[in-house]
Amino acid sequence: MTLSFRKKVRYLSETTFRVVRDAGQGGTLLTPDYQTETGQCVLIGRMLGRVTDKWTVLIVRVLGRGPRRFNALRREVGEISQKVLASTLRDLEENGLVSRTVTPVNPPQVEYALTDLGREFLRPIRGLAEWVLDNATRIEAARTAYAARGLAAVS
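Now predict its structure.
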């Protein structure tokens, strides 16, 4: 009897793989389990989308130096609007990276600080910033070379 479809047997290890036996070719092939991999990619993409925009990275870096009040944070971050800063801080608080403390004085004082999770997140942010600084010249050279190739192709 010849099988016209692949018989799939799951092999679970640290990474999930499928052992695929193709009777027509008589071989066995080890391939990633794409359902598991796709699910992980979706989760990773969703989480990264929440925490890796430009303003989040800059705010986390500033708060890594210590708690800040809203206007001090706005001055240190740079060209960020009040609306965008407020929205980003809400998102960071919702995702557990930033805590918001209100001191009941007149007028109320609000201070933002990194949570334990935010301080853990600061490590890869610092690593990414360091990588960017180390490679900025190479990236700019690649961009210049790419632009030159694009102009040559149009001519």
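Confidence is low (pLDDT under 50) at residues 1-20.
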